[in-house]
Write a structure and sequence with these properties.
disordered N terminus, about 75% helix, globular, single chain, 8 helices, mainly alpha
Amino acid sequence: MLATACGSATSTSTSSVSATTTKLQSLPRRRGQTITKRTSDLYDIYRLLARHNRDGGLARTLASAPHGLATWCVGQAESLLVDEAERGARWLATEGSPSMARVTVEALRAVGGLLVADLDDAS
């Protein structure tokens, strides 16, 4: 078992990667009654990256994922957090809680850009 062999830090990192990739896939697919979840998806992605990828740890774990998952995540992160940061910040400011509203365009670009750069470096 990965968590047993590598310790709890790997387990946390692996679960953080799983949560991040799930949210990156869910956010752009929100439609109809689930559209309101896009704001919490974006906020979750932001918090996961801000907490677990400061030193590139999440990216290093993700880089070893099979089936081109890391490459797919680069495209999603670049689109949602870097290229469309203004839209994301607007969602957080108008549809989210006060803590969500404090996340700036620059903060979204910073965490997204770091993930993209870290994954580019790892490949």
